[in-house]
UniProtKB/TrEMBL annotation:
<dbReference type="InterPro" id="IPR013783">
    <property type="entry name" value="Ig-like_fold"/>
</dbReference>
<keyword id="KW-0732">Signal</keyword>
<dbReference type="InterPro" id="IPR004843">
    <property type="entry name" value="Calcineurin-like_PHP"/>
</dbReference>
<dbReference type="InterPro" id="IPR029052">
    <property type="entry name" value="Metallo-depent_PP-like"/>
</dbReference>
<keyword id="KW-0378">Hydrolase</keyword>
<protein>
    <submittedName>
        <fullName>MPP superfamily phosphohydrolase</fullName>
    </submittedName>
</protein>
<keyword id="KW-0479">Metal-binding</keyword>
<dbReference type="InterPro" id="IPR003961">
    <property type="entry name" value="FN3_dom"/>
</dbReference>
<feature type="domain" description="Fibronectin type-III">
    <location>
        <begin position="22"/>
        <end position="112"/>
    </location>
</feature>
<dbReference type="Pfam" id="PF00149">
    <property type="entry name" value="Metallophos"/>
</dbReference>
<dbReference type="InterPro" id="IPR050884">
    <property type="entry name" value="CNP_phosphodiesterase-III"/>
</dbReference>
<comment type="similarity">
    <text>Belongs to the cyclic nucleotide phosphodiesterase class-III family.</text>
</comment>
<keyword id="KW-0408">Iron</keyword>
<feature type="region of interest" description="Disordered">
    <location>
        <begin position="102"/>
        <end position="125"/>
    </location>
</feature>
<dbReference type="InterPro" id="IPR008963">
    <property type="entry name" value="Purple_acid_Pase-like_N"/>
</dbReference>
Length: 452
């Protein structure tokens, strides 16, 4: 398979060392935690002047690790100057707590975004605990991505001349395509191309050229509704004169069903209306009900581009009018609650990483919003299924071109937006115990980070 490939992972050209008086070492994140590994990141930059993008100041990368109460051990020491620092440490023990200390130019990195600065966070405490896999046999892995935005030229809310969006550098003009290519390459390298759900906003405004490019990239990844399934997002809504997305992917307000080799069912629905908010029309409800009632106990991941809980609607800075309309939120949750096999509902749209609370007290479905692929936080999620539950992990492709854009897009919405998008370490990485014994192990090889 030949995908548009970014630069080699974590390669960087030498540059001059930063002036220590100006260096800010911040935005510390415990970004990914698996049973046997951790990814920790931070940035080095000039001071922020309340507008624009602060200058990146490349520096060295050092990470120390150790069990609580014991001395730190230097586990990563890279003198190559870079501004977005990403360290992945493997070979850890499941369910064990580790302390860590990240430094650049002799200065310790600290958290900068609100989800990481709260009391008790992994970043503030300087520690993390590796995950314990659910019980039973490993079954399979699938991937979740959304908000690709191919064709977009500025990131963030565009309000005329106000500096609420970030303009890419000349070399980053196709940043949306770059980030999607990086995610596809990462999925190929790490997981041998698992079934991929691309949950809406593949394009910026559903033009023929944008749709053609999205389809080309996915066709190189695999076959539609076999290796990947794509839902429609509000940016992919039909145009007045045509619907390129519908012609290339799926018609408006149509539900798609895909069954993975393990027997897992993906139910991919169209929640789009026209502008930001969404709805589900009666004809599509007929499709959803027919599928769920025909096989209510089959383990299922449901997908809509719009989040479907009241918790999501009222916690978003965009407000409930930006979400699925209220009547549809409740109706869809009731349908899922009446189908015991629906254990996870994946949404995008808000560009944030967040676990949402169901409206129904009896709900067995877990609801999650996945971060955008196109810009900060910038990545994808994988779901590792076991007979006794699943592990969800968020990954950020660690290629230099992608990290350069993530550094820049971090400053969208006057630098405020990412405070609402990052989520906590537990939002990005968690274990859920549930009964998935109705599935069979696929032929997929168990990922290395799950081998304990």
């Amino acid at each position: 398979m030949s995908l548009p490939s970014p630069s080699a992972r974590l390669a960087a050209a030498p540059v001059a060392a930063p002036t220590s008086a100006r260096l800010v070492v911040t935005d510390l994140e415990v970004s990914t935690v698996t049973p046997t590994s951790v990814v920790i990141s931070w940035i080095t930059r000039a001071p922020y002047r309340l507008h624009g993008v602060p200058a990146p100041l490349p520096s060295d990368t050092r990470l120390e690790l150790g069990p609580p109460g014991e001395p730190f051990v230097l586990v990563h020491d890279d003198p190559t100057p870079r501004a977005f620092h990403v360290v992945e440490i493997k070979g850890l023990e499941p369910g064990r707590t580790y302390r860590f200390r990240a430094t650049s130019n002799g200065r310790q990195a600290g958290p900068g975004l609100r989800p990481a600065t709260r009391r008790g966070t992994n970043e503030r405490n300087g520690e993390f605990t590796t995950l314990l896999p659910p019980s039973g046999r490993y079954l399979t892995t699938i991937a979740l991505a959304n908000d690709i935005h191919i064709g977009e030229r500025r990131q963030g809310i565009v309000l005329g001349a106000l500096p609420t969006s970030v303009r890419p550098e000349d070399t980053q003009s196709d940043y949306a395509e770059l980030m999607f290519a990086a995610a596809l390459c990462d999925l190929q390298d790490r997981y041998a191309s698992p079934l991929l759900v691309v949950n809406g906003d593949l394009t910026y405004d559903n033009t023929s050229e944008q749709v053609r490019r999205a389809r080309e990239m996915l066709d190189e990844y695999g076959a539609q509704r076999v290796d990947w399934v794509a839902t429609r997002g509000n940016h992919d809504h039909p145009r007045r004169d045509a619907d390129p997305f519908g012609e290339a992917f799926v018609g408006y307000q149509e539900t798609q069903k895909v069954c993975e080799a393990s027997g897992l069912r993906i139910l991919a629905m169209d929640s789009t209306h026209g502008s930001g908010g969404g709805w589900i029309l009666p004809d599509q409800y007929d499709q959803i009900m027919a599928e769920l009632q025909a096989d209510p106990d089959r383990p299922t991941i449901a997908c809509t581009h719009h989040p479907v809980t009241t918790d999501a609607a009222w916690s978003s800075v965009s407000g409930p009018q930006f979400m699925l309309r209220g009547a549809d939120r409740l109706r869809l949750q009731i349908l899922e609650n009446n189908a015991p096999g629906v254990f996870l509902h994946h949404a995008g749209h808000t560009h944030r990483m967040r676990r949402d609370r169901a409206d129904l007290f009896t709900s067995q479905t877990n609801y999650i919003e996945n971060a955008a692929c196109a810009a900060y936080p910038g990545g994808y999620a994988v779901v590792h299924l076991y007979e006794g539950g699943y592990i969800l992990n968020f990954w950020r492709p660690a290629y230099p071109d992608a990290l350069d854009w993530l550094y820049r897009s971090r400053w969208q919405m006057l630098g405020i937006g990412p405070h609402f998008m990052l989520g906590t370490t537990a939002d990005r990485n968690h274990v859920v115990h549930c009964d998935l014994s109705g599935l069979q192990p696929s032929e997929r090889e168990q990922p290395t980070e799950l081998l304990v």
